[in-house]
Amino acid sequence: MDSGLMQNLGTIIALVGAALAALMAGIGSVRGVSTAGEAAAGIVSENPDVFGKVLVLQALPGTQGIYGFIIALMVSMNSAGLTIAEGIEKFIACMPIAIVGLISAMYQGRMAACSINMLAKNPDLSGRGVTMTVVVETYAVLALIVSIMLI
User: Fold this and answer.
1) What is the pLDDT of residue 7?
2) By C-alpha distance, which of 136, 87, 106 is closest to 26?
3) pTM as predicted
4) Which of these, 17, 21, 46, 114, could form a disulfide with 98 (CB 3.0-4.6 Å)?
5) pLDDT reported for residue 138
6) Number of helices and strands (H, E) in the chain?
7) Taking Cα atoms as reference points, which of 53, 30, 33 lies closest to residue 43?
8) pLDDT tens, 100-132?
9) Other Cβ atoms within 10 Å of 83 Cβ, number
10) In whole numbers, what is the pLDDT of the chain averaged over residues?
């Protein structure tokens, strides 16, 4: 194997982890936000006054993508000259937010869509809908904390 590649292999492994954190959490957020957005479009077309309430719910699944970006940034800024073992450690540190970010954002989008449909029947329940949607966020926050601790 090329000696230059071997010298940089730890850095490459860490950067692959960083890329996966941003990509997977970002993909989850895209799916979650679009799921909520589909529900929001229908509700707002019938009742434009609830736009602000449904916008908050639609935006919530987008936070996982932000968390993945934060981890990717933290790892990429500190990955120069890593050994292979250090690169693997950084890669592993990226996995909690990569995996949980992907899955939780999609489920949070589904919960947000349910909350948006609830608002269609009773706009006064927006606070409850936000609370139910935020509960799913808890696990993304825990994954973010674990990734930060592992870095």
Assistant:
1) 75
2) 106
3) 0.92
4) 21
5) 95
6) 5, 0
7) 53
8) 999 999 999 999 999 999 999 998 999 999 999
9) 13
10) 95
Residue 1 above 70 pLDDT?
no
Q: Identify the burial level of 58 via C-beta atoms within 10 angstroms of its C-beta, where 0-12 means exposed, 13-18 middle and 19 or more buried.
A: buried
Tracing tokens 């989850």 back to the chain, one arrives at 28
Place of tokens 């950067």: 15
What number of other Cβ atoms are within 10 A of residue 109's Cβ?
Answer: 30
Measured distance between the N- and C-terminal CA atoms of the chain, rounded to whole angstroms: 28
- Could you tell me which residues come within 8 angstroms of residue 27 by beta carbon, excluding any fewer than 6 positions away? 102
Q: How far apart are CA 19 and CA 39, in angstroms?
A: 30
CA angle 140, 67, 9 (to 5 degrees): 110
